[in-house]
Amino acid sequence: MGDDIFESISQGIDGTYDEENRRIKEIANEFQKLCRLHEAQLRDGKENVNSYEIEQRVAESYAKSVGMWIPMGNIFELGVPGPSGNENDTYVSPSSVFKVNNLLNSKSISNLLDKILLHNTLFPNTKYRLHGFAGYDGRSVLPVLEQARICNAQPATQIMIDTYMSALGFAKLEKIGNYSNNMYEVWDILPRNVLIDSEGDIYVIDAEIKKL
C-alpha cells in the first residue's frame, strides 16, 4: 500500500470512540445470546452442534435483520482493492480502509469482536468500526472492519515502535514486535503494521492482542 493510501486522523479521542465501542459490545452481546439460543435449539433437536457453523449462520441471519449484510458480489462497492494480508483483504475509499477479515487469526467472530474492543482500548487513534458482514447466502461469513485512512505516512522503524510502545507503558519481550504490561500482551507490532505520518504521529493499524 502506498504512502498516500491513508488520510491523517487526530491522535485525540472524541465521543465517537466510546459510542462505537458501546455499539460493538451491544452487537457482541446480542450475537453471543443468539448463538447460545441456536445451539440449545439444535441440541434439543438431537442435531450435531458445530460452534463455528452456528456462528456463521447466526451472523448471516443477524446481519440481514439489521441491515449489515453485504453480498459478496457487492464487495467492490466498498472501495478500490488494496493489498491482501494474512487475514484481511482491503478495500480503500476516499475516507476509509475496509478490511474483510477471514478469521484465520481470530478463529471465530466472537474472538474477533473481543479483539476489536481491545485494539480500540489500546490504540484509539486507529479505532475499528464494525461495518458489516460479507458473504454468499448460506456460506462463509466474513466480518468487515473499517478504519480511517492515514496519508502522508510511511512504515515506522522498529526503534520508533519500541519508543512508542514504551511511552504507552509496554515493555519489550524477547521476540521483536512483542510487548506486554500488567494487563495486556501485544504482538506483531512490526513496521508493516505501524505507520508514522509527516507530523511524527504513530499509528498502530493492526496488532494481535490478548488480555492477561
Give an overview of the whole structure.
The chain has four helices and 13 strands. It is 33% helix and 26% strand. Residues 1-13 have low confidence and may be disordered. α1 packs antiparallel against α3 (109-122). β2 and β3 (88-92) form a beta hairpin. By secondary structure, it is an alpha+beta fold. It has a six-stranded mixed beta sheet with strand order 1-5-6-4-3-2, covered by helices on one side. A four-stranded antiparallel beta sheet has the order 8-9-10-13. A three-stranded antiparallel beta sheet has the order 7-11-12, with helices on one face. The radius of gyration is 18 Å and the shape is globular. The longest helix is centred in the N-terminal third of the chain and has 30 residues, at 15-44.
Kindly estimate the percentage of residues that lie in beta strands according to DSSP. Answer: 25-35%
**Termini, distance in Å?**
33 Å
In one word, what is the shape?
A: globular
Helix content: 25-40%
Name the quaternary structure: single chain
Radius of gyration: 18 Å
What structural class results from the helix and strand content? Answer: alpha+beta
The parts where pLDDT drops under 50 for at least 5 residues are 1-13
Order of helices and strands: HHEEEEHEEEHEEEEEE
Strand order of the largest sheet: 1-5-6-4-3-2
Number of strand segments:
13
Main sheet overview: 6 strands, mixed
Q: What's the rounded overall pLDDT mean?
A: 88
The number of helical segments is 4
